[in-house]
Design goal:
Blueprint: E1 10-15, E2 24-27, E3 33-42, E4 48-50, E5 55-63, E6 68-79, E7 83-85, E8 94-96, E9 99-106, E10 115-123, E11 132-140, E12 143-151, E13 162-167, E14 178-180, E15 184-187, E16 193-198, E17 201-208, E18 218-225, E19 230-231, E20 234-236, E21 240-245, E22 258-265, E23 275-283, E24 289-294
Parallel strand pairs: 3-11, 12-19, 12-20
Antiparallel strand pairs: 1-2, 1-6, 3-4, 3-8, 5-6, 5-9, 6-7, 9-10, 10-14, 12-16, 13-15, 13-17, 17-18, 21-24, 22-23
């Protein structure tokens, strides 16, 4: 018998026992509670600093009473010294329904702090329109993955290598509390040195030398980023050149066609599927020719 509060998110509702009803979407029902909180970064020396630009997601699955079971989501952003602002950019608070929430925090990808998921945030109505305040979410610094990229044959440093880090997500893994692995990228300097800060987790790393170097792409799989720094030295093998021509049905050369090469990697575990990894790309010239330099 309470008024609905439109505009503050959606509640996914399913009719209770005894009713045959497909899933429906309803406006969030009930009185919203003002939740005031902030986000700060935790430095190794114990000092803290506010973080602006953090995307914050509040989610609960236990909204509703005996007859309706629903979920509720609210999105917010930090600003003005790490304060969390909801839909009203003038009000440093988030309108939430009573429930037990999971809070996911995504700081800027190019920043120094890692994403995190916090569970067990319980919101109850204190009554009288009084806001809930005082919660501070702390994010730890990313862990650096550093190293040098050299040639396998001579140990010569290779600069201007693009590096991409792809998170490894275990199949069927649940959304548990803790750090959240995210994609990130960087480039090595002229001395082959690279420094890539990453959230904690497991990654497959792809090293892509400048095409003019004629060195092949290299994958480093299953790199674990944990509590300490990760030192990774990468060796680029001498390439195998793949040359061919692309023509149309009339035998005329095709210019500008994009060529990609993939390698199938068999898993040592029979139950696990094979993996497909891109190991190079190129494009055809005016005469339809292309050349690719790939690892043996």
């Amino acid at each position: 018998d309470r008024d609905a509060t439109p505009g503050y998110g959606n509640m996914q509702a399913i009719a209770g026992a005894g009713c045959r009803q497909d899933s429906i979407t309803l406006p969030a029902v009930g009185t919203t509670i003002k939740y005031q909180a902030s986000v700060e970064g935790l430095d190794p020396d114990g000092s803290v600093e506010p973080i602006d630009g953090v995307r914050v997601k509040f989610q609960t699955e236990d909204v509703g009473g005996d007859s309706i079971q629903g979920s509720y989501e609210m999105f917010a952003t930090t600003q003005d010294g790490g304060l969390i602002f909801g839909p009203d950019e003038r009000d440093p608070s988030v309108p939430l329904l009573a429930g037990n929430y999971t809070v996911t925090l995504y700081p800027p990808l190019d920043g120094d702090f890692e994403a995190a998921r916090v569970t067990g945030i319980t919101i109850t109505d204190p009554g009288g329109g009084v806001p809930i305040s005082g919660q501070v979410f702390q994010l730890e610094r990313k862990r650096p993955v550093t190293g040098t990229i050299v040639t396998m044959a001579s140990g010569r440093a290779v600069g201007s290598v693009s590096l991409e880090a792809y998170p490894i997500y275990a199949e069927g893994a649940s959304a548990s509390a803790g750090a959240i692995s995210r994609f990130n990228s960087t480039q090595s300097d002229e001395d082959g040195l690279f420094d890539l800060p990453l959230d904690r987790g497991a990654y497959d790393l792809l090293f892509m030398p400048d095409p003019s170097s004629h060195f092949p792409w290299v994958w480093e799989n299953g790199v674990s980023v944990g509590e300490g720094d990760v030192l990774l030295d990468v060796e680029l093998p001498d390439p195998v050149s793949l040359r061919a021509d692309v023509v149309d049905a009339a035998g005329e050369p095709v210019e500008g066609a994009e060529i990609k090469v993939y390698r199938i990697i068999s898993s040592p575990v029979p139950e696990e599927p094979e993996q497909v990894r891109q190991v190079g790309k190129s494009s055809t010239q005016a005469d339809g020719s292309f050349v690719l330099f790939i690892a043996p």
